Amino acid sequence: MNQPSSLPPCADAPLAVGPAPRRNTRQVSVQWGNNVVNVGGSAPIVVQSMTNTDTADAIATAIQVKELAQAGSEVVRITVNTPDAAREVPAIRQQLDRMGIDTPLVGDFHYNGHKLLTQFPECAQALSKYRINPGNMGAGNRREDNFAQMIEVACRYNKPVRIGVNWGSLDSTLMARMMDENSRRREPWSAQAVMREALVVSAISNAQRAEALGLPGNAIVLSCKVSHVQDLIAVYQNLASRCDYPLHLGLTEAGMGSKGIVASTAALAVLLQQGIGDTIRISLTPEPGGDRTREVVVAQEILQTMGLRAFTPMVVACPGCGRTSSTVFQHLADSIQAYLREQMPVWRTRYPGVERMNVAVMGCVVNGPGESQHADIGISLPGTGEVPSAPVYVDGRRTVTLKGDHIAQEFQAIVEHYVEQRYGAGA
After folding, report:
1. Which residues pair with 225 in a beta bridge?
2. How far apart are CA 80 and CA 123, in angstroms?
3. pTM of the full structure
4. How far apart are CA 235 and CA 188, in angstroms?
5. Which InterPro entries match (predicted)?
6. 321 marked as binding residue
7. Contacts of 211 (CB under 8 A, 6+ apart)
C-alpha cells in the first residue's frame, strides 16, 4: 500500500471563526416608558416584527402585539393607514400598558402619514417610532411638503424614524432622472444596477434632508428592501459603505414556509457575517391560520445559530436514519424544544444565562454519546436493535441511565433540576 510521503503542513495560526466586527454606526433609541431599545452603536442586533391585524380593531391588535412581544420581538410595527386606525393607536398602547407590555410600537405609514400624524396627535405620541416610505408620499413639491410635515411631527414629539425605501415603491421621479443619466454613460449600467443605486441614493438623500429639517442624526434608521437575495446583499453592502446610520435588514415579500425562511436566512446571514445590520425582521407570509410569532422565532434562530445573540436554549438533535426507525427521539426533541421556549418568559428573568444552554437529544449510539457530552445536558436514546436504555450526560459526565415508558418526563425533570442548580439564585 502506498503511504503519503509526509503530512500536510500545519497552519501558522488557527483559522478565524466568527463574523466581522459590526460596522460603526450612530445609536438610535426607541423608547416607551422605562423600556429603551437601542439600535446601532454598541447595542445588540434587535429583533422586530409586524402585526397583520386590522389596527382599527384595538383589542385584536393589542393581543397580537402581546403575543409577538412574549415570543421575543423587541419592537413591533403596526399599520396606520386610515383615520380609524390612527384613532385606535392610543387605545392599543393603553391596553398593552395594562397588560404589562412595554414593547415600543412603530407606526407604518404610506401615502397619508402626514395627515394622520397631524390630525391625530395622540396617535403620534403613543407611537415610539415612525416608518416613512419616501416613495409613497406623492410627487414633486407635494412629496417634499408631505415628507417635511412628518419630520416636523417627529421632531415635535422627539420620535425616531425609519426611512424605508422599497423597490416596489421607489420614487419614480428619482428613478427616471437616474435612468436618463445612465443613458448618457459611455458604458450604461443595467436597469437592475440603476435600480439598486437609486435605492441607496433615495435612502441617504432623504436621511440628509430629514437632518436638514431638524431631526437629529441619531434618530434615523435606514432600510432598502428588495425581494431577491443577491440584490439585497449588494444594496446593503453599498449602503453600509456610504453612511453611518443604523440599518434595518429584511428581505421584503420573502414568501411562505421554507422558501421565505431559506431566502431570508441566505440574505441576512451573508450581511450579518460581514458586520452589516443593526435590527432585523423576517417577513414571512403566514399559512392560513398560521402563527404570526413564527417570524420572531426565525429571526432569533438566525442570530443565535450565528453566535450573534442568545435567546433560548438550543436543542441539538440528529436527523435520523435507518438506525433510528423509532420516532421516540423525534418526539422527545420536539417536546423539549417547545418546553424550553415556553419557559423562557419566566426563565429569562429568573435564570440569567439560561438562554445559552445547549441540550442534545440523540437517536442512537453513533454520535449520541459524543454529542450529549458536548452539550450542557444531553440524552442518547437507543436506536434500532440497541439496548433499550438512554444514558444522560450533564456537563460532559454520564450521570444516570433512563429506561422504561417515562423517559421523556424523567428527562424533562432532569432538565428542570439542572436549570435551577446551574442558573438559579444559589448557583
Report:
1. 166
2. 9
3. 0.93
4. 19
5. Dihydropteroate_synth-like_sf, IspG_bac, IspG_bac-typ, IspG_C, IspG_TIM, NO2/SO3_Rdtase_4Fe4S_sf
6. yes
7. 217, 220
Longest dimension (CA), the chain: 86
pLDDT reading at 273 higher than 90: yes
CA distance 67 to 60: 11
Q: By the 8 A CB rule, do 383 and 363 touch?
A: yes
Q: How far is 33 from 133, CA to CA, in rounded Å?
A: 27
Contact status, residue 286 vs residue 50, Cβ threshold 8 Å = no
Annotation-wise, does 318 bind a ligand? yes
> How far does Cα 160 stand from its chain's mean position?
19
Residues near 289 by beta carbon (within 8 Å), at least 6 away in sequence:
none
**Percent of the chain residues topping a pLDDT of 90:** 86
Cβ contact 279:223 at 8 Å? no
Report residue 32 CA to chain centroid gap.
Answer: 20
User: Is 224 within any annotated ligand binding site?
Assistant: no
Sheet holding 397-402, edge to edge: 314-317, 358-362, 377-380, 390-394, 397-402
Q: Which helix (H) or strand (E) covers residue 400, if one does?
A: strand 397-402
For 65, 223, 240, 324, the CA distances from 263, given in Å and listed in that order, are 25, 18, 21, 31
Write out pLDDT tens, residues 244-268: 999 999 998 878 889 999 999 999 9
What confidence tens digit (pLDDT) does each residue in 34-58 have?
999 999 999 999 999 999 999 999 9
Residues 6+ apart with CB under 8 A from 328: 363, 381, 407
For residue 14 the three cell numbers come to 488557527
Q: Which of helix, strand or coil describes residue 173?
A: helix
Neighbouring C-beta atoms of residue 426, cutoff 10 Å: 5
Q: Do 61 and 51 touch, CB atoms closer than 8 A?
A: yes
- DSSP single-letter state for residue 1: -
DSSP states of 223-245: EEE-SSHHHHHHHHHHHHHH--S
Of the ranges 125-134, 289-298, 318-327, 330-339, the best mean pLDDT one: 125-134
Q: Across the chain, how many H-helices and E-strands are there?
A: 13, 17
Question: Is 10 assigned to a binding site?
Answer: no
